[in-house]
Amino acid sequence: MCWYSADHAERVLEAEAGQRLVIRKVHGSSWAVQESDLQKTRPLPVCLLDRTKVVFRFSELEQQTSDIPVPDTEAVFRMLSRPKRDIFECADGRMLDVNNLPANLVLDVLEIPGREKLSAILDGDHEQPEEAQPVLTRPSLLERVFSLL
Question: In which region does residue 115 sit, left (phi positive, over 0), alpha (psi from -120 to 50) or beta (all else)?
Fold first, then answer.
């Protein structure tokens, strides 16, 4: 995903909170791409920052391998450096190697590290901004002089 695409793709997009991505197999590796790029011959990979929170939509896979429904799963993206590989860490402790994820798996980006405030706004868990207080302006020097006369 990010290690491979950073080295081999001409152009890379950066993931955004609230974005829906799909896993696509490219040159034997798994890339996250925009839904609109899924059928393109040359899709643009979308890189996730280390520690980006996502939710996998296993329930939306067209071909499930069993009759038992798989629940949607939250995970945190990690770019490991030794060896260079991309994984997702699930809350239950499982580690999912990006290249082992099935093609066409949908994932929603929940939170980008360092941009949590924006993510909260997208979730609707934010406080309403206070109404702007009117700015008090001081009269100009000329106005103050005329008021004395």
Answer: alpha
Q: Looking at the chain, how many residues does it have?
A: 149
Q: Is the pLDDT of residue 131 over 60?
A: no
Residue pair 46/19 in contact (Cβ under 8 Å)? The answer is: yes
Cα–Cα nearest to 6, from 46, 41, 34: 46
What's this model's pTM, rounded to 2 decimal places? 0.69
Write down the number of H helices and E strands in the chain: 3, 9
User: What residue ranges do the domains of the chain occupy?
Assistant: 2-127
Nearest to 32 by CA among 43, 42, 17, 18: 43
In whole angstroms, give the CA distance from residue 57 to residue 90: 13
10 Å CB burial of residue 107 (0-12, 13-18, 19+) is buried
Q: Are 49 and 101 in contact (CB under 8 A)?
A: no
- What's the pLDDT tens digit per position in 33-76? 999 888 888 888 899 999 999 999 988 876 655 555 578 889 99
